[in-house]
Amino acid sequence: MCKRTPFYSASDVTNITSRFDNSADPCEMEQRSRQFNQAFPIYLIGIFTLFFFNSCEDAFESKVSSHNSQGSHNVGLNCMECHSKGGEGEGVFNIAGTVYQQDTLLIFPNTTIELYTGLHGTGKLKYTLEGDAYGNFYSTKNIRYGDGLFPAIKGINGTTYMADRITTGACNSCHGVTTDLLTTF
Question: Does 16 share its domain with 77?
Fold first, then answer.
């Protein structure tokens, strides 16, 4: 058994492994082996942490639209096609869509979307979202739809209510495809 036991930190693990060769005396080889075995778990934790946080970046990334922001794109398209688990978009959206002006069908910037438990803005207000400067609204925050929520879109001159409850937030997957566009006034 070797009596020399100098201390090496985890940052020295690369030096320890690069200096390890077969020509060293057995005592030095045993010391280096022990030092490597002590530092290796710390090294593995560091590698795992870097890999985990880089590979799951989108799952933890918070993206929420706000009034006057200009970070969105692809007005009118189904945002969830890209902004979903495994999709190409940044962030996994739980709700997203585009609002248009009722009379002109131009985008309606800076709207407010509210989700209620009851029809026509009755019941409990569960969530409020702000539309951005391009008429888009989106959020990666958790939305619990439960048995369904009723959307209300507030514009400058009034509110438009959806008569059907929603259980998913992929608004543009129906609106503008199989049903009317989301509009307000």
Answer: no
How confident is the model over 65-75, as pLDDT tens digits?
999 999 999 99
Q: Supply 9's token pair.
A: 């930190």
pLDDT digits over 111-157, tens only?
999 999 999 999 999 999 999 999 999 999 999 999 999 999 999 99
Task: Provide the token pair at 82.
Answer: 């890209």
Instruction: Assess if residue 164 is contained within a domain.
Output: yes
83 and 154 both lie in a single domain: yes
From the centroid of its chain, how far is CA 18?
40
Torsions phi, psi of 82, nearest 5?
-105, -35
**CA angle (142, 101, 168) in 5-degree steps:** 25
